TrEMBL record:
Name the record gives this protein: SGNH hydrolase-type esterase domain-containing protein
GO MF entries: hydrolase activity, acting on ester bonds
Keyword presence, Hydrolase: yes
Keywords tagged on the record: Hydrolase, Lipid degradation, Lipid metabolism
Organism in which the protein naturally occurs: Cuscuta campestris
Family, per entry: Belongs to the 'GDSL' lipolytic enzyme family.
Length: 327
């Protein structure tokens, strides 16, 4: 069982139809063949982790609430629930939507309603994908007194509060992504092959602080309750061609706008003419749009993350022959 929290890197349909490009063509052209609320041409990291666990990708909370609010009593979604919502962050972002704390409030209500048993929770994985939009919000803040180190420390402090809260609510294992190399996203990179290292320094600062914080959390709990999924290294591995299946396009997105100010999925309001183009083969592009990986990109990322995830979820048996695998 899997519970998912965070932003558009994990969202599989919570962002409302009509409010974001994820519900417009050509999003979803690879899977499921039409827009599904995923910010990609197909599957995202959430889907690959769920498959690895042997469960269906958890249904979006937005479309599942009727199970608990007047439509189905306390009937649970057997594979878990996805609370992730595109554009959100640890704090409230410029894009709006329920931040991480609000998503946890929604999860806590289900726990208090006893929708899920104690065994459901202790044998589950919570996956947290958050913080990228917080830094976008920071970058757009024109406060002359702002300080990136102070801000990153506040983001990490709140992430720690959220991770501890998940554990206190009974979740057995918690994975949290570090942030990708922001300077390598198509919207920030200097060319298709060169990343903006100045922008990447923000990612590196966040990730150093997160590593230290999660190490302390695991020390405090006396075990391996928390795992960082190293998104930064997985992105760099793919973009720098370190894998045999390297991507041809580098930091160039597959789907891009054709006019100034347009982006993937945009159409002319009057004529309906497309204001975007899609590359010939999305499998050859790591990025789908200016921020989000393609399905093939996410598969590459997951293949890098799988070994650490396996060790985390399926530890070696103890001397008495028992183990504490999460499924």
């Amino acid at each position: 069982m899997m519970f998912v929290f965070g932003d558009s890197y994990a969202d599989t349909g919570n962002t409302p139809n009509g409010s974001a490009a994820c519900w417009t063509s050509p999003y979803g052209i690879t899977f499921p063949g039409k827009p599904s609320g995923r910010f990609s041409d197909g599957r995202v990291l959430t889907d690959f982790i769920a498959t690895y666990l042997g469960v269906e990708s958890p249904p979006p909370y937005r479309t599942s609430r009727r199970r608990w609010n007047g439509g189905g009593g306390s009937k649970k979604a057997k594979d878990g629930v996805n609370f992730a919502y595109g554009g959100t962050g640890v704090f409230t972002t410029i894009l709006g939507g329920p931040n991480m704390s609000t998503q946890l409030d929604e999860f806590q209500r289900l726990v208090e309603q006893k929708v899920y048993t104690k065994h459901d929770l202790t044998s589950s994985l919570a996956h947290v994908s958050v913080a990228g939009n917080d830094y976008t919000t920071y970058d757009l803040n024109d406060d002359p007194q702002k300080n990136i180190t102070d801000y990153a420390e506040s983001v990490i402090s709140q992430i720690v509060v959220n991770l501890k809260r998940l554990h206190e609510l009974g979740v057995g294992r918690v994975s949290v992504i570090n942030v990708p190399p922001f300077g390598c996203l198509p919207k920030n990179s200097t060319t298709s092959t060169l990343c903006n290292e100045t922008i990447n320094s923000s990612s590196e600062l966040h990730n150093r602080l997160l590593k230290s914080a999660v190490e302390k959390l695991n020390s405090d709990t006396g075990g391996s309750t928390y795992l960082i999924l190293d998104l930064y290294s997985a992105f760099m591995s793919a973009l720098q061609g370190k894998k045999s299946s390297s991507f041809e396009k580098g930091s160039e997105e597959c789907c891009r706008g054709t006019t100034s100010g347009s982006s993937c999925g945009d159409v002319d309001r009057d004529s309906g003419t497309k204001k975007y183009v899609v590359c010939e083969d999305p499998k050859r592009s790591f990025f789908w749009d200016t921020v989000h990986p393609s399905q093939q990109g996410w598969l590459s990322v997951f293949s890098d993350l799988a070994p650490s995830l396996h060790t985390f979820l399926f530890p070696l048996p103890s001397p008495d022959g028992s183990s504490s695998a999460v499924i």
